[in-house]
Amino acid sequence: MGDKQKVLFVCLGNICRSPAAEGVLKKKLAEKGLDGRIVVDSAGTMGYHVGEAPDQRMRAAAARRGYDLCSRARVFAPSDFDEFDLIIAMDQNNLRDLRDLDPGSRYRRKLRLLCDFLPGSRLRDVPDPYYGGPEGFERVLDMLERAAEGIVAQLADGVSA
Question: Tens digits of per-residue pLDDT, 33-47?
Fold first, then answer.
């Protein structure tokens, strides 16, 4: 691990949930003055949309809240296990896919569910808004904003002043 902490968000196609989580966390870190010390990225477990910008509906919903989603979809690579300190899956299927790529459980301590960062929530999955209406994108952003507070707090504890 280098001097910068690195966080990776993972969903299925890397065009809705994980790029939104990346954008939300980057803004929250910037607001706390931590943006230069923590690297944030996102990836998908499947290569359906490699090279594409985030879904237009998610970009529009995020822009209304002041988030810029400018990443390009990519597939999670086994080297990401070594590259990132914290790998946050959007749902249990994504987490299972990541664990399948880590058969020796060498990186299990790095893997978390985003819902682990939602205080008082019993939810385990961030729902995929891709096939739903506009309210799904808003609900996902609500969840990501709430979870970002806990993620920032955890990361800030690990950053030396």
Answer: 998 899 999 999 999
108 is known as an active-site residue = no
Per-residue pLDDT, 35: 87
The residue range of the domain holding 24 is 5-158
Q: Which amino acid is at 139?
A: R
The residue annotated as part of the active site, out of 99, 106, 128, 139, is 128
**Where is 153: in which H helix or E strand?**
helix 134-158
* Among 11, 16, 55, 80, the one annotated catalytic: 11
Of residues 48, 45, 151, the one with CA closest to residue 93: 45
- Asked about 55 being catalytic, the answer comes back as no
- How many domains does one find in the chain? 1
From 16, 17, 74, 91, active-site residue: 17
157 compared with 8, residue with greater pLDDT: 8
Which residues make beta-bridge pairs with 40?
A: 7
CATH label of the domain that carries residue 60:
3.40.50.2300
Asked if 70 is an active-site residue, the reply is no
Backbone phi and psi for residue 67, each to the nearest 5 degrees, phi listed first: -105, 140
User: In whole angstroms, how far apart are CA 109 and each of 6, 86, 113?
Assistant: 14, 8, 12
pLDDT 10s digits, 48-104: 999 999 999 999 999 999 999 999 999 999 999 999 999 999 999 999 999 999 999
